[in-house]
Each structure stands twice: as structure tokens, then as C-alpha cells.
Amino acid sequence: MPDTGTPIIVLAGPTASGKTDTGIALAQRIDAEIISADSRQVYRGLDIGTAKPTREQLLAVRHHGIDICTPDDTYTAGRFLQDAGRWADEIRSRGKRVLLVGGTGLYIRAFVDGLFEGPTADPALRAQFEKRIREQGLGALVEDLRALDPQAAADIDTKNPVRIIRALEVCMLTGQRYSVLRLVRRPGTVREAQHFGLRWERSALHRRIGLRVEEMIEAGLVEEVQRLRERGVDRSCTAMNAVGYPEILAYLEGLSPLADSIDAIKAGTRQYARRQMTWFRKESRLRWVDVEEGMSAGDIAGRVLSMVEES
After folding, report:
1. 20 to 30 A Cα–Cα from 161, which one of 11, 76, 139, 238?
2. What is the CA radius of gyration of the chain?
3. Which among 132, 156, 181 is the end of a domain?
């Protein structure tokens, strides 16, 4: 059933754009709880590399969708849609507003618009895909997807095997393009929402990304990845494909000097931010908030709030 009452506020943007701090400042002003729309912060133990809110930030405003599954689990947009719907109902039952904050565009779209009713998973077909990944690498499947559905290949994170496999599976089982089918929504699932995005000048965002990566290293990213290795978390898990983890694993396995791994994380994060912005630019409902160096989270939240009140 569609949500009723005050519209949901969506705060989106690329990585390192300041969504966490701004979201907390905004939530405090409008008496909201935050639903995290981040496909990596759901995993326990992946803290530094996914830039999770700190303990102090989590205490300042109640968050949902963080640390809810183990790294060897596979969390999907479908699961997020179900979970976020439940969280939103609980938040509203407490008389609070719902603030959706994150950079995973698919999660935001799923929650606001619903998901198309695609075919159920085909275990035999997926086994074939997984075998090809082991033998030829994920790039082989990416090329298959480019041939079948170039738009899906352009939109999807090509380092995420779960999403590549699902897109190929839908194409092959339906004979139609995944990029077209996923725009079809189930009746009655659309939620009323106001969409806002944080936008930085590209060179400024790149500087922020570089500083964030350096801070992650200083905060113990190498040690975090080492702990995950010692716990037996397989590098093939979806969680471990997040930018930062494969690069540090390469260093720990003696395949790359630390300096090169750090440079690779910075480059990978810039590429990820570019993919996020490509997605968000296609979201016609999103209203941009231009951010500049020196602006505080409170300043940015104030701009968003003024735009909310104008709507």
C-alpha cells in the first residue's frame, strides 16, 4: 500500500558529498529518523571502508538499515524495499518523519517507486554465470550484458556480480531488456517523496574523496580488512566488492604496495562517484543543492529545509 501522511524526504548524492552529516542535521531539525539507502553499510564489520556513521552520529539520530546482515549474506534491492517499508511504518507510528539518505540509486528508486515483478531466480542459469565468473572473470558477463542490454550495462555497477547476474538473468529469461523492464512498477507501490541531491564541483569532490581515503587508512582500514580475512570472509562475497576492500586485500596478499592500493582506492572511488552522478542526473524529480567548500552540515541542511518548505 502507498504511504500516507507527510511525504518522505530523500537526500541523495555521490560518495563523499556530505550526506551523512547533512542528513543528521536535517533529521534533527524536522524530527525525523533516517533510513540508510546504502548497499554496503548493511554489512556488519565493514565500517571504515563503507564510511558508516560513527557511534556518536548513530546516537544523535536513530538510523535504520545499518549493520543488519553478515558479509557472506547477499542483500538485495528487493529486501531493502520490504525492510524500508517496515521501518517507515514504524517511524511514522512514533510520530516522526521519514528521511531516506544514501547514494545507492537503485535502493532509493525501489523504495519510492517499487520494483518490477521480474522472473524468479533460475538456479541452473545462475550456476552457469557463476562458473563463467570463476573461469573467465566478471568482465565476461559484463560484455554479455553490453551485447544484450547496453543501457543496463551503462547504469549498473559493473563490479557488482549480483546485479550483473540478475540483469543477464532477466534478459535471458524474458527475452526483453532489463533496463526497460525495471521501469515497470507494480500498481499501488509509489510513495510520495521530495527528492534532493548534494552536488559538488567535480574537482572539489575529488579532493574530498582523496582526503576521505587518507582518513580511512589512518582510521584503520588495513586492519579492518585483515580482521575480515581472519574471520574467513571470502573475497568473492558481494560485501567485499565494495571499493577499498579488494585493493587492501591485494596489499595484504603481497600483490600491491600499500601506496599503489591507496591510489587505486582513490581512483575507484572517483569512478564510483561518477557512476552515481550518472544515475542521479537521470532522476528528473531530484532537486540539486549546490555545495561549496566551507559550508557546514547545518548550512546545507538549512538549504534543503528551505526547499522542502517551498514545495
Report:
1. 11
2. 19
3. 181
Report yes or no on 160 lying in a domain: yes
pLDDT tens-digit readout, 81-107: 999 999 999 999 999 999 999 999 989
- Phi and psi at residue 72, in whole multiples of 5°? -85, 0
Q: What are phi and psi of 182, to 5 degrees?
A: -70, -10
Strands (E), the chain: 8-12, 32-36, 63-64, 97-101, 193-199, 286-290
Residues 24 and 76 in one domain: yes
Q: Rounded distance, CA 308 to CA 42, Å?
A: 28
Of the candidates 255, 278, 252, 239, the residue with the CA atom closest to the CA atom of residue 49: 239
Report the alpha-carbon distance of residue 69 to residue 50 in Å, rounded.
14
Which tens digit of pLDDT belongs to each residue from 176-204?
A: 898 888 776 554 456 899 999 999 999 99
In which band, very low, low, confident or very high, does the pLDDT at 51 lie, cut at 50, 70 and 90? very high
Task: Pick left, alpha or beta for residue 7 (phi over 0 → left; psi -120 to 50 → alpha; otherwise beta).
Answer: beta
Q: Is residue 186 part of a domain?
A: no
DSSP for 269-282 reads HHHHHHHHHHHHHT
Asked whether the beta carbons of 111 and 85 are under 8 A apart, the reply is: yes
**Which of 133, 163, 181 corresponds to the end of one domain?**
181
Phi and psi (nearest 5°) for 83? -65, -45
